[in-house]
Design goal:
single chain; alpha+beta; Double-stranded beta-helix; 6-stranded antiparallel beta sheet; 5 helices; 19 strands; TIGR00266 family protein; AIM24_sf
C-alpha cells in the first residue's frame, strides 16, 4: 500500500496545531484525542493499532495494538478519510504547549525513533511500532527513553515537542548529553545510550537525576525543553490537592489567604 501524499500547514506559536489537506480518497491517522477540527466530508473511524497495511488481519491488528500499549499509548488510533469530491482539511493539536515537528520519513531514510508520547499524526500508511533499547544500561536506567516509538514509511509524520524545539545534526562521533525526557526523536544512525553523572552530590542536589542520555552521531536529533513528565511534576508540586504547595504559601499573606479561603 502506497503512502498517502498529504499537504499541511502549521498554525500558532507556543500552542500549535497542524492542518492537513486531503485529496478525495486520501487519509491521515491521528493519535486518539488529537483531532482539533475537520471539515464536512471527512469520515472518522477508530481502529486498533495504526491502521497501516502492515497490520492486515486480526492478528496483525492485535499485535499493532499491543505494541502501542507497551509504549503507554492508547490501543486505538483514529483514521480520517476524505469521502468528498474536493479537497478537505482536518487539524490536529497537542495537549500542552510546544512545537509541532513535521518529518518526511522518506528524506530521513524511512525510519525514525520517537519518544513514546510525541506522536501526533501522520499520513495513512505510516507504520507505528516499538523500538527497545538493546543496551542493558539503557534498559535499566533509560526512563522515558527505554521504549521508543518506531515510525516506518515514506510519508509525513507530525511529532510534538514540549516547550522549545531544538534540531541538531550530529557529525560522526559527535556526542550530546541531555536529560532522558528531553529526547523527542532521532535517526536510527544515532547511538542512544545512558551515562552516569559521575558525582553523587551532583545527582542528589542538582535535580537532574543520576543518569543522562547520550546521543552520538552521525544523524539528526530533535530535543524538547519541556517534557510532558517535567510539566506534570511542576503542576503536581504546585497543587495543594495533590499534596503540593500553593503558589501563595511562600508569601507573608500565604497563611492568612488560606484562612480567608477556608483552607486548612
Amino acid at each position: 500500500m502506497a503512502m498517502d501524499v498529504i499537504d499541511y500547514e502549521i498554525f500558532g506559536d507556543d500552542m500549535q496545531y497542524v492542518e492537513v489537506e486531503l485529496d478525495p480518497g486520501e487519509a491521515a491517522v491521528g493519535e486518539a484525542g488529537a483531532m482539533y477540527y475537520m471539515e464536512d466530508g471527512i469520515s472518522m473511524d477508530t481502529v486498533f493499532g495504526d491502521g497501516s497495511a502492515a497490520q492486515g488481519g486480526l492478528l496483525g491488528k492485535l499485535m499493532g495494538a499491543g505494541k502501542r500499549l507497551l509504549t503507554g499509548e492508547s490501543l486505538f488510533t483514529t483514521v480520517f478519510v476524505n469521502q468528498g469530491l474536493s479537497k478537505k482539511r482536518v487539524a490536529f493539536a497537542a495537549s500542552y504547549p510546544g512545537k509541532i515537528v513535521p518529518v518526511h520519513l522518506w528524506e530521513l531514510g524511512g525510519t525514525l525513533y520517537a519518544q513514546k508520547d510525541s506522536f501526533l499524526a501522520a499520513a495513512k500508511g505510516v507504520s507505528l511500532g516499538i523500538a527497545f533499547q538493546k543496551k542493558i544500561g539503557t534498559g535499566l536506567f533509560g526512563g522515558e527513553g527505554f521504549i521508543m516509538q518506531k515510525l516506518d514509511g515514506d510519508g509525513y509524520a507530525f511529532l510534538h515537542a514540549g516547550g522549545t524545539l531544538t534540531e541538531r545534526q550530529l557529525a560522526a562521533g559527535e556526542m550530546l548529553r541531555v536529560d532522558t525526557g528531553c529526547v523527542v526523536a532521532y535517526q536510527p544512525s544515532v547511538d542512544f545510550d545512558i551515562q552516569y553523572v559521575g558525582k553523587l552530590k551532583s545527582a542528589l542536589f542538582s535535580g537532574e537525576g543520576l543518569f543522562l542520555a547520550t546521543l552520538t552521531g552521525p544523524g539528526k536529533v530533535w530535543l524538547q525543553s519541556l517534557p510532558l513528565s517535567r510539566l506534570a511534576d511542576r503542576l503536581i508540586a504546585a497543587s495543594p490537592k495533590a499534596g503540593g504547595r500553593s503558589s501563595e504559601q511562600g508569601s507573608v499573606l500565604g497563611g492568612l489567604g488560606d484562612l480567608l479561603d477556608g483552607r486548612d
